[in-house]
UniProtKB/TrEMBL annotation:
Keywords carried by this UniProt record: DNA recombination, DNA-binding
InterPro entries in the cross-refs: Homeodomain-like_sf, Resolv_N, Resolvase-like_N_sf, Resolvase_HTH_dom, SSR_resolvase
Domain Resolvase/invertase-type recombinase catalytic: 7-139
UniProt cross-references to PROSITE patterns, sorted A to Z: RECOMBINASES_3
Family under the similarity heading: Belongs to the site-specific recombinase resolvase family.
Protein name: Recombinase family protein
Native species: Arthrobacter cryoconiti
Matches recorded under SUPFAM superfamilies: Homeodomain-like (SSF46689), Resolvase-like (SSF53041)
Amino acid sequence: MATQHFNLIGYTRVSTNGQDSQLQRDALEAAGCGRIFEDKISSRATARPGLVEALDHLRPTDTLCVWKLDRLGRSVKEVLTIADGLHDQGVGLRILTGTYRPTGEGKFFFVMMAAFAELERDMIRERTMAGLAAARAQGRTGGRPTVMNADTLAAAQARRARGESPTQIAKALGVSRASIYRHLPTSNT
């Protein structure tokens, strides 16, 4: 007789703080997850505290539920390691946009889907890097524009020469203290 899994525990991951996990949360809540753990961290990061907390929380007969396979791990190896570890502990794994069965054809399909997820992530990264390189070749750079142009820097240097603190200068010029420290020589601050 197959083990029944009673508690659905959700896990979401988005790559940056600017991204929203609400779509994943809605799907996990609709699936019946009683508790949802979350990470807002790049998949390249080695430490994912939300995943660690979710894995520590799970007990035999629980089921870890994720929206998509690529939310679980960075590579096929990592996803398989997590899935095998869950299976060994008597914990189920449910992927809302697919299925996972730890044996036979189910495991083969799972490995293939994990490989495709890793391939997709790598292709997106390669396209992003190629786009950035092309933009740099055309003289364009990404990122936030600098707030310390020549006029602002001159004003900051003049204020510092009058004895103002970096905090006072930053407030007066409407920039961060970090910008002041970064652009004024340390011997003058």
